[in-house]
Amino acid sequence: MNFATLTFTRDDGWSTPFPKLDSPRTLVMAFGWSGLVDDPRPIERLVAAYPQSRIVGCSTAGEIAGAAVRDASISVAIARFDATDVRLASAIVTSPADCAPAGREIAGTLDALDLKAVFVLSNGIDVNGTELLRGLNERLDPSVVVTGGLAGDGPDFRRTWVIERSRLRRHRVVAVGLYGSRVRVRHGSRGGWNAIGPDRVVTRSDGNVLYEIDGRAALRLYKEQLGPLASGLPSSALLCPLALHGAGKEPIVRTILSVDEGTDSMIFAGDIPQGSRVQFMQADFDRLVEGASQAAQLTGLRRDGDPSLTVAISCVGRRLVLRERATDEVAAVKAMLPDASALVGFYSYGELAPHGAGRCELHNQTMTLTHLSER
Which residue, 6, 160, 167, 185, shows the most beta carbons closer than 10 Å to its own? Predict the structure, then answer.
């Protein structure tokens, strides 16, 4: 596998000429700011340079390029595989009800005996990541590794896009299938948040809509927890996510996409099952950075390994908490990778990765890594 990375900024343009890696076995991944939907000319130039390649990407809450974290830029990775086939699939998602059917549609398009991995990028608004993955997991063999993330829009939660058929589209899910015996996809995902306060019980919910906790209106309780920060909802909720506890498993973190003042409810990126136990969480800077390092350790990569390509997807909530220290968590990941390896990625509204050794699940507030290589 040959790979290269490059960046675009509005002041300096493209960092290098486009590498000559175009082929039917080339995967191009581009992550950029949401405003590109108004002026997509930089993406159009990239697409024109790779007419044979498979191109995917999405909007972000910040772009990762090496150890740098930027805004209003584009971070690009280009990987030309030697013996791995690359195929694309997409589906329309305009509401949470579309998500499970979209997952099944994408899985049906990509499924094959030699399918090894699927990388998914989704619209980050009006989406239920749990349902999307339910549809994918229903149709895919458990041996297929599924990773990816939900597109971002900074802290604004207004509009996101993905690249589908070389165009920026708002209500879509896109996925890349990787095929053959030589491709290898490793992954790791960790958080680093502290649970605070007592365990609470979800007493009323419907899918990803949370109405009551401990018999109280969920939004009112959340506002009490946030205090003065409640005026900044929904984005301020990123500073105080929920830990969703499951039997015998590490908690999964959930954050809010939007709120409904009329029903005192909150809409999350994934399901909050009725009867489940939840806890509020808060950030610890050092633990967040350590969580990023642990995610890199989980990939099994070694510092003395071959140069490789890693895609990092971290949560917008982590960036809002870390602020200028966001580069610390990216540097912690890069420090664990082999020398001369490439690191690209973005800050998201949700991360998709297996939970331990199980099937892929939606995570929030994690650093999630996808490592691509060929044997």
Answer: 160
Task: State the burial class of residue 165 (Cβ atoms within 10 Å of its Cβ: 0-12, 13-18, 19+).
Answer: exposed
Pair 294, 261 in one domain: no
Between residues 70 and 339, the one the model is more confident about: 70
Residues 248 and 296 placed together within one structural domain of the fold: no
**Which residues lie below 8 Å from residue 70, measured CB to CB, with a gap of 6+?**
7, 9, 62, 63
Which amino acid does the sequence have at 141? Answer: D
Helices (H) and strands (E) in the chain, counts: 7, 27
Are 212 and 301 members of one domain?
A: no
Are 93 and 242 contained in the same domain? Answer: no
**pLDDT at 253 (0 to 100):** 87
User: So what's the pLDDT on residue 99?
Assistant: 97
Final residue in a domain of this structure, among 243, 258, 282: 282
**DSSP string computed for 49-67:** H-TTSEEEEEE-SSEEETT
Whether residue 96 is preceded by a cis peptide bond, meaning omega within 30 degrees of 0, is no
- pLDDT digit string, tens, across residues 207-253: 999 999 999 999 999 999 889 989 988 888 888 889 998 755 678 88
Mean pLDDT in residue range 278-298: 91
Q: What is the pLDDT of residue 341?
A: 87
Residue 42 lies in domain: 2-190+286-374
**Angstrom distance (rounded) from CA 40 to CA 347:** 20
Residue 69: Cβ-neighbour burial (10 angstroms; 0-12, 13-18, 19+): buried
Q: Are residues 160 and 252 in the same domain?
A: no
How many structural domains does the chain have? 2
Contacts of 138 (CB under 8 A, 6+ apart): 100, 103, 104, 107
**Where do we find the tokens 């549609």?**
105
Full DSSP string of 210-278: EEEETTEEHHHHHHHHHGGGGGGTTGGGGGS-EEEEETTEEEEEE-EEEEETTTTEEEESS---TT-EE
Q: Are residues 310 and 250 in the same domain?
A: no
**Is residue 68 located within the same domain as residue 14?**
yes
The domain boundary residue, chosen from 251, 282, 313: 282
Query: Same domain, yes or no, for 135 and 44?
Result: yes
